[in-house]
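Researcher: Last one for today. Full complex below.
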Amino acid sequence: MQVIVVYDVPAKRTRIYRKLLRRRLEHLQYSVFFGELTAGQVTAMKNEIESELEPTDSIVVFEFDNPHAFDHTTFGDADEPGSRFT
Amino acid sequence: MTKANHHIFADGELSRKEGTLRIDTLEGETKYLPVESIDALYLHGQISFNTRALGLLNKHGVPVHIFGWKDYYRGSYLPKRSQLSGNTVVEQVRAYDNTERRLRIGHRIIEASIHNMRANLQYYSGRRGDFDSVVETLRELKTAVSDTQRIDELRAVEGDARKRYYDCFDSILEAPFRLAKREYNPPSNETNALISFLNGMVYTSCVSAIRKTALDPTVGFVHEPGERRFTLSLDIADIFKPILADRLVFRLVNRKQITTDDFETELAGCLLTEQGRLTVLEEFERSLDQTVQHPRLKRKVSFKTLIQTDVYSLKKHLLTGEPYHATEKWW
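Model: Here's the assembly. Have a good evening.
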């Protein structure tokens, strides 16, 4: 499924989430991650997020089951999300 | 859903950083790749990497396929086997060594290969010319396959079918693209270059799929096992070439997604330019993602999964004697 994760956490704690999200998702913008994951990967990711959580942190995970119900438009200097080429 | 492949065209350095892959390109860009969401990594540019990066790829079971000058396939770095089964390898070699068993598997592979070639011609018959007689010949050759008693006899039937199949390419392809004669090392014209490049991609897809099983990629059934070759991958690739490579060649050329500008002729050979390779790979990746309803699994599977199920079926056949379902186009 398509997944978007955004976070808003104290500057000192960003690396914790950046690290665990980058392994699975594309680092689209400073606190925005996007990618296609399996249901198992999503569960593992949520568990990992939960184990790191502190009251100051705010994280939102969006999931889309149907890839056809999902579209995007980029503007400016943005990279094409989900590109398989570097 | 299977994980996606990732292709790196840029030149630069591949390293391990914060538990994932990092690429620093020569242009000064830094990019991180989600190592847990990559199925296989394809390196097309000049890239240096170290053992730490390889260790990470190994840990996550990501094979790396390396392409050298002009995207000639150079080799693969395969992760440590996740599937180890002495049993399977013993059975595989036994099947190879037993003329009767080897021949039976060979029959299935070549039958499927001829069937898929025929399906392509059938599709274009009436659209781009009249191939009814060739379709009929291929049908006869497919029946002739099970009568062959020796492997070289079998290969002769396959060669015959393939020749007749390639003879139809010139009518299917929009001018100025011509195949004339299948030639490689180096490819002699644009069409040959395109077919060679895509066949290489199909081959590496099969290498990846076989690596996910305990089968030994070097022991093939139709192709004679030799040195330095993954003959089992060559066998499986023969089944999928008409579906994944040839059909894409027709589409790219006839829709003019690829033109003669995407090739460069050097010395005796003709090869795709970097832009051309990129266009071809984007479409190839798209076709790997395409899904069809699977009659036995009763769900939709992508073409990439189809390669995997084919390999699983072969393994099951070797171990338990269940019939081997070489993929014959049913959709």
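Chain B has ten helices and twelve strands. The interface with chain A takes residues 1, 4-10, 18-20, 23, 25, 31-37, 278, 281-282, 285 of chain B (CB under 8 Å).
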